[in-house]
Automatic annotation (TrEMBL):
It is a multi-pass membrane protein. Involved in peptidoglycan biosynthesis. Transports lipid-linked peptidoglycan precursors from the inner to the outer leaflet of the cytoplasmic membrane. It comes from the Bacteria. It is found in: Cell membrane. One of its GO terms (molecular function) is lipid-linked peptidoglycan transporter activity. Pathway: Cell wall biogenesis; peptidoglycan biosynthesis. One of its GO terms (cellular component) is plasma membrane. Belongs to the MurJ/MviN family. This is Probable lipid II flippase MurJ. The chain crosses the membrane at residues 12-29, 36-57, 63-82, 94-119, 139-160, 167-187, 193-214, 235-255, 277-298, 319-338, 358-380, 392-411, 417-437, 458-476, 488-507. CDD domains: MATE_MurJ_like. It comes from Candidatus Segetimicrobium genomatis. Keywords: Cell membrane, Cell shape, Cell wall biogenesis/degradation, Membrane, Peptidoglycan synthesis, Transmembrane, Transmembrane helix, Transport. One of its GO terms (biological process) is peptidoglycan biosynthetic process.
Amino acid sequence: MAEDGLPSPQRLARAASLMAVATVASRALGLLREVVAAWLFGATNAKAAYVIAYYLPFFVQRLLLGGTLSIVFIPTISRYLAHNDLAEARRLSGSLFTLVLLAGVAMVTLGFVVAPLLVPVAAPGFAASPELLELAVQLTRIIFPAMLFLALSVFVTGFLQAHHDFTASALAPLLFNITIITGTLLLGPRIGIRGLAFAWIAGTAAQFLVQLPAARRYGLRMGPIDLAHPAVRELARLAVPAMLGLAIVEINAYVDRFFASMLLAQPTANPVAVLDYAYEIVQAPVGIFAISIATAVFPLLSRHAATDSRDDLRGTSSLALRTLLAVILPVTALALALREPLVRLIFQRGEFGPLATHAVAATLAGYAVGLPAIAAYYVVTRTYYALQDMATPVRIGVTMVIANAVLDYLLMQIWGVVGIALATSIVSAANVVLLLWHLRRRLGRVDGRRIASTSLRTGTAAVAAGLLMAAVAEVVRPVGLAGQSVQVGGAALAGALAYVGMCRLLSVEELRVALELLRRPVPTSQG
């Protein structure tokens, strides 16, 4: 720790490295979780009912509790810690911890009661099948309690990250996924899709409980709710626009599934389930790179904003975005060039057949073209949140919600579920461009030329790598799981070597930064 109370650059680098490695492992386990679900339930109507059931309480939790509090809580608690006011930081944290717990219990109770009213609104297409509608209602009621544990977990994660302790919060998702995988394998064959829902409760509880001892070491305790506390009042003021900002992201996901439920469903390729599988593949690199970078850099951005260090804020934000682009663009090329072989390798077994593979692969292409923008959103918005400017992303986002709904409706008439994914990509790109433009007005500059230069050079290298990957995949014909692995692995390796070579020729320094970050040793203990 530096003398001024700020974390040293070495500690920040170790934190980012730890987050990256743990996130890679978590995303790998998350993908395995989806593989298990695909094997047992495929892209059937039952899986579609689960998707709708999951999104309803997750939307409420993100909107009212976990996501909103974590975004507004970290900058606020960071100010107290920066001034070494530990007693006040603990008092505020205890008050909010109790508030989250009570609000979560109320949320679960209300969700159980109103589930029959929520599901028909979320998935109007399910009305054509009373059995499917009833299953979605049952699953929603089962999953709602998991959102209490998830809200508590997100709050504790924010508390630990404000103290620059990333160890427990990085490892918690690993236990979360392991618990869900184990629960699904044990319960799925016995009670069907409901087993996956019950496994979610166990997973979220484990994710919260594993972080609690570390949080208690930093003094987190339940405390009396003090609504008159100045910081609580400030948080309440900031929470409303932050809530709206998160609502925009979640509403877009909800709108996509709303329209997907209206499309003609095939027994083994329900559009809602197809959209969800493709989205999960896209979210893997987003979590590995975008969220880990944004999470690790957010406390530093918050401290720069709190001390009005605009140059440092701009520099940190720009470097994070350019580094992200250097690693996300080749992943985009891979997702486009190897979409069907990739989906076949990951999912096609058990109840997940060739028809589902083709549908998910086509939908993946629609999402993949917008992957750089989807990933960049997480870094760009963290700069706004560090500045405690929640209003600008909301104003832009409201327009994007409307645009997304219109494009969903129009493009699904032409390309079905693929059109819905493509609409998300178009809207995501427009959203990030507008956010950067407004951020430039706020900060004076955002290193736009350097960002554009990095995008052009890495984009050129990614296109070359993608063409090579597609060519290699055509030459290598898969026979069985081993053959599929050789096809995808060989093509990906060839593309990676080509991309790194092109980046060296084009002097892409950001790739070197990313590779050095990934090569840093990860500490086994805090400090």
